[in-house]
From TrEMBL:
Coiled coil: none annotated. Signal peptide: none annotated. It holds the Pfam family Amino_oxidase. It comes from Candidatus Roizmanbacteria bacterium RIFOXYD1_FULL_38_12. The lineage of its organism: Bacteria, Candidatus Roizmaniibacteriota. GO terms for cellular component: cytosol. This is Amine oxidase domain-containing protein. One of its GO terms (molecular function) is UDP-galactopyranose mutase activity. Residues 12-425 form the Amine oxidase domain.
Length: 471
């Protein structure tokens, strides 16, 4: 009997379990351990008094045919096609996103619009030769003026560090193939720019939120014999030379730690935590601490009426702390309680564990969210009935300026363990989209039985064009 341990029941972990179930190998014993009491990771759907809240708003859009078929096979008619409506709030004005020519021109004014265009032309002729940081990468492509107007404040709000200390890798990954001239021309002439992933105009969304997919996946793998343990945290790994032999798992509710023998481990746990559990050399133990994640808090509110038409609003305004606002009624009407007249809204705040925002009480956060929602002008405080707070650790890997050197050393160390397979956003320390995380889960599972290079998750991870191209 081959014992396979999967750490984490997010998109990648559940995808790995699903893929292992498809091997039809009766000699497999698969156990999946999840710290939380609900599957889905940061793609779970929360429920509160019959209303549903997504953690961040997850579009089901992919150019990867295998993942597209995977979505449809599990969700079928429950996968709703939605027309995108999102805006940017900045300087007390709302900008269409994707941009529209007249809206941008009206909000910015003619003179400032001309300055933006001239700034872009100037930077095309005088590009920064070294663009290893976010600020220079963006300025080279959008011009300094647009960078300071739309990118700087929001990016620093999300990551908590200066854009001059944030690696350009993050921008290169998230804003691939974006051409400002083409986007502006497309806005003026209404050209189709849907092939650029950052500005797609339609997408799919599950009837009852993204958690619907992962709850279906959980039921599927459990029927196939996978043992899914909720509220169980992996606290240690035992190894012999180049193999992990045992996993130490703590039952969070009972406080009991169990030593479990493992023939193969698929891990989605935060990469820095995994490396620490593998007892690396002292130098790497110190270095890996520089690989940090950003946390976020979502303050979920119930409002009397539908306050705005968007699915989400990016808040670039530095005078408020909220980074993004979701209106879940507009994602799917089924996110609203049957017969309920309230609208579920999510206010997202980015922070780091231990900082002032993370330590703020739930009551104070709800008060802050109410006040900021009203200040932006999207609702009146008296229309906000109630709310709750949900905190997410290790949500976004931080690409600080020198992260890549430590990551490469850590990857090399992890690759020494032949029965250890990594996947997912946290497991690979890569800001993946949902579709890519699922695919890494598939590939990790296939790697358990194959050494074929095409199943090498790290090679996919290093291919900057992979996310945007069809397989």
């Amino acid at each position: 009997m081959k014992r396979i341990i999967i750490i984490g029941a997010g998109p990648a972990g559940l995808a790995a379990a699903y893929e292992l179930c498809r091997t039809k190998d009766s000699k497999l014993s698969i156990s999946l351990f999840e710290t939380d009491d609900q599957v889905g990771g940061i793609s779970k759907t929360l429920q509160y008094k019959g209303y549903r809240f997504d953690l961040g708003g997850h579009r089901f859009y992919t150019k990867i045919q295998e993942i597209d078929q995977f979505y449809k096979s599990f969700l079928g008619k429950n996968l709703l096609k939605r027309k995108r409506l999102s805006r940017i709030y900045y300087e007390k004005k709302f900008y269409d996103y994707p941009l529209t020519f007249m809206n941008a021109l009206t909000n910015l004014g003619f003179l400032r619009s001309v300055e933006i265009v001239l700034s872009w032309f100037y930077r095309q002729l005088n590009r920064y030769k070294m663009e290893k940081t976010f600020d220079k990468w963006i300025s080279n492509r959008f011009g300094d003026k647009l960078f300071h107007l739309f990118f700087k404040s929001y990016t620093e709000k999300v990551w908590g560090i200066s854009t001059s200390k944030l690696s350009s890798d993050w921008a290169a990954q998230r804003i691939q193939n974006f051409n400002l001239f083409r986007a502006v021309l497309g806005a003026i002439l209404s050209l189709d720019t849907s092939d650029v992933k950052t500005i797609i105009r339609t997408f799919f969304y599950p009837k009852y939120g993204p958690g619907m997919l992962y709850e279906e996946l959980q039921r599927y793998v459990e029927k196939k014999g996978v043992n899914v343990y909720m509220n169980h945290k992996v606290t240690g790994l035992k190894r012999t030379k180049n193999k992990v032999t045992h996993v130490l798992v703590k039952d969070i509710k009972k406080g009991i730690v169990t030593h479990i023998k493992a023939d193969a481990i698929i891990s989605t746990m935060p990469f820095n935590e995994l490396i620490s559990l593998l007892h690396p050399p002292e130098k790497l133990t110190t270095q890996v601490k520089s690989l940090r994640f950003r946390n976020f808090i979502t303050v979920n509110l119930l409002l009397k009426k539908n306050p705005f038409p968007d699915q989400w609003v990016y808040v670039h305004e530095p005078d408020v702390k909220v980074g993004r606002i979701q209106n879940f009624r507009n994602w799917s009407p089924y996110m609203v309680k049957k017969g309920g007249g309230l609208t579920p809204v999510g206010m997202e705040y980015f922070c780091s564990e231990g900082d002032k925002m993370w330590k703020t009480t739930d009551a104070a956060l709800i008060s802050l969210a109410k006040e900021e929602l009203a200040r932006i002008g999207l609702a009146k405080e008296e229309d906000i009935r109630e709310g709750f707070v949900y905190r997410v650790k290790n949500a976004y890997p931080i690409y600080n300026f020198d992260y890549d050197g430590t990551l490469k050393l850590s990857k090399k160390y992890a690759s020494n363990f032949k029965n250890l397979f990594l996947c997912g956003r946290g497991g690979l320390f890569r800001y993946n989209n949902q579709d890519h995380s699922i695919l890494t889960g598939f590939f990790a599972a296939r790697s358990v039985f194959s050494t074929d290079r095409k199943h090498d998750v790290w090679s996919i991870n290093e291919n900057s064009e992979f996310l945007e191209e069809k397989l």
